[in-house]
Each structure stands twice: as structure tokens, then as C-alpha cells.
């Protein structure tokens, strides 16, 4: 079952003189098992949108269907805890939320909070830490004593340990060096491909969006401006100009090669894939 927003609106400081409609009549279906990006300029409503997915925010108008849960404006919700287990939200700079005395305890906190027995919670925490690349020798170390990149991985492990069906990432690569950013995104790509997790990524990094996200949603002033294939969006220069989006460098390269007479397929989204296609045509 997809995630479905139906005529959903959200107003900050509702009924106040300085009320602001952050989301305005959102109608949007996000597919299961797909990596979807949500992009747009600062203040467009991206974070507000995804905070509805695990009911950190509740709609002022309209409704939202997530898995088997329906959230309707003005209706008291009774299933928030199971919803939040099924929808894991990784905040921007999530490492700042680490608080336990050891890494293993911090990651086990989520499963314990959702009712797992202590032994099962520790087991899940250990598996999640190994999955994100944290060595067992660090399990009993304070999360304050490890590097920034390791802290980000520990925070992500805390979400993975709860085994959510949907993982929402708000600027997951912010503050990371290029290699660290690539490793973090590759981790979620593997979760999508191997475990069929639905991944939703809020990002300003168009290069990352183009390389890894199958579909893209563009928000502007709280409204949906575009929803469709990522490759179609970044192939349309008029749309990029209209939405004030920078063209990814890989797309610039493809366009330059096409202008020189090469045929580059839409599936070629990495340097390696483009080089292979060019090499084949040069040989011919």
C-alpha cells in the first residue's frame, strides 16, 4: 500500500496573526519499495511534509494513509507508537540525539521503547551496528568519544534496529565528507534493494538525488510542483530553470557528449556507465 496524502494542509501557529500555511492541499502517492527524493528550496515545506509520516506533525486539513494507518485531520489518533515503529525518521544531524552511556545501549533504546525484551533489543542493536559498519570493539564505548561520521552511523543504527518498513532521511549527508556521504547513501540503497525498504530522502544534493533516487518530488511554497521519474526531471532544462534547480554535473557531461554525437541512454547515471557506452561507440 503506498503512502498517500489527500488534500493535506498544515498551518504553523494556526489561528494566530502570524499563521503560516507550510503545506497547501498536498495530494501525493509515494510508492512502496522505491527510493524517493523530496527536494525544493529552503522553506518549501520538505521537512514539514516528512514529519507527518510518523505523526510528529498532524494535518490541519485532509488526511494521510501510511501502510495500514490512516491519519485524518481533527481525529484523535490511537496508533502512534506502532506507526512510529514502522516509519523510522532519521533527522538532520541525528548524531546530536545520542545520549546513552554506551553505543550499544543507545542503539538498543529504540527496540526497548517499542516493547522488545532486553536480550532481543541488544541483539537487534548489535546487528544494526554491524550493518552500518561499527566494529564490535566500540559497542561499550561512549557515543561522545567517537568521530562525527561514526556518530551519524550509530544514530542511523538506532533506527534500523527497530526494523521499520519505511525509512525517512532528512538531509542524511549534511556535514559529511564526500566519501562518508557516499557510504551512508549506499547503506540505504542496499536496505532498499535487499530488504525492499521504502526510502524517502529529503536533500539539497542534486548529484546524490540523480544517482540514487528513482522518483523525485519537488516542493515550492508548500505545494507539489513535480512528481515523477528523477531522470525525466533532470533531463528537462525548462523544469530545472522553473524550479531553480541546479543541473547535476553528470547530466552536464551527458548533454555535452550527446551534442558531440554520442548516444547516451537515460539509464547511464554514473561515470563508469557513461564511459562504457562511449567506449563501445568509439570502437565502432
Overall description:
The protein is an alpha/beta fold and 284 residues long. The protein has two domains: 3-246, P-loop containing nucleotide triphosphate hydrolases (Rossmann fold), CATH 3.40.50; 248-284, no CATH class. It is 39% helix and 22% strand. It contains eleven helices and ten strands. A hairpin with a 7-residue loop joins strand 1 and strand 2. Helix 3 (103-113) crosses helix 4 (118-131) and helix 4 crosses helix 5. The mean pLDDT is 91.
Largest sheet: 6 strands, mixed
As a whole number of angstroms, the C-alpha radius of gyration is 20 Å
Tell me the total number of β-strands. Answer: 10
Instruction: Tally the helices.
Output: 11
User: Helical amount among residues, as a percent range?
Assistant: 25-40%
Describe the global form.
globular
CATH superfamily heading of the largest domain: P-loop containing nucleotide triphosphate hydrolases
Going across the biggest sheet, name each strand in turn: 6-7-8-3-9-10
CATH topology of the largest domain: Rossmann fold
Helix and strand sequence = EEEHEEHEHHHEHEHEEHHHH
| Total domain count | 2
Query: What is the architecture of the largest domain at the second tier of CATH?
Result: 3-Layer(aba) Sandwich
Low-confidence runs of at least 5 consecutive residues: none
* Class from helix and strand fractions: alpha/beta
Specify the CATH class of the largest domain: Alpha Beta
Question: How far is the first residue's CA from the last residue's CA?
Answer: 47 Å
Strand content: 15-25%
Round the mean pLDDT to the nearest integer and report it.
Answer: 91
Amino acid at each position: 500500500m503506498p503512502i498517500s496524502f489527500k488534500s493535506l494542509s498544515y498551518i504553523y501557529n494556526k489561528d494566530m496573526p502570524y499563521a503560516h500555511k507550510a503545506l497547501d492541499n498536498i495530494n501525493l502517492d509515494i510508492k512502496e519499495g522505491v527510493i524517493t527524493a523530496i527536494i525544493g528550496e529552503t522553506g518549501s515545506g520538505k521537512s514539514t511534509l516528512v514529519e507527518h509520516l510518523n505523526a510528529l506533525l498532524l494535518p490541519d486539513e485532509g488526511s494521510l494513509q501510511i501502510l495500514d494507518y490512516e491519519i485524518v485531520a481533527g481525529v484523535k489518533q490511537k496508533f502512534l507508537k506502532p506507526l512510529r515503529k514502522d516509519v523510522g525518521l532519521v533527522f538532520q544531524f541525528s548524531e546530536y540525539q545520542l545520549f546513552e552511556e554506551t553505543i550499544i545501549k543507545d542503539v538498543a533504546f529504540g527496540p526497548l521503547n517499542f516493547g522488545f525484551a532486553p536480550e532481543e533489543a541488544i541483539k537487534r542493536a548489535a546487528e544494526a551496528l554491524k550493518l552500518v559498519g561499527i566494529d564490535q570493539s566500540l559497542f561499550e564505548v561512549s557515543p561522545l568519544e567517537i568521530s562525527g561520521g561514526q556518530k551519524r552511523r550509530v544514530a542511523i543504527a538506532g533506527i534500523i534496529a527497530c526494523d521499520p518498513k519505511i525509512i525517512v532521511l532528512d538531509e542524511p549527508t549534511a556535514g559529511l565528507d564526500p566519501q562518508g556521504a557516499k557510504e551512508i547513501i549506499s547503506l540505504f540503497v542496499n536496505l532498499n534493494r535487499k530488504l525492499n525498504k521504502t526510502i524517502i530522502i529529503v536533500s539539497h544534493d542534486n548529484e546524490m538525488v540523480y544517482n540514487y533516487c528513482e522518483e523525485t518530488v519537488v516542493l515550492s511554497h508548500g505545494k507539489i510542483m513535480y512528481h515523477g521519474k528523477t531522470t525525466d526531471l533532470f533531463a528537462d532544462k525548462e523544469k530545472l530553470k522553473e524550479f531553480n534547480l541546479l543541473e547535476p554535473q553528470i547530466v552536464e557531461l551527458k548533454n555535452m557528449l550527446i551534442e558531440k554525437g554520442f548516444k547516451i541512454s537515460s539509464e547511464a547515471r554514473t561515470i563508469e556507465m557513461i564511459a562504457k557506452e562511449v567506449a563501445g561507440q568509439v570502437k565502432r
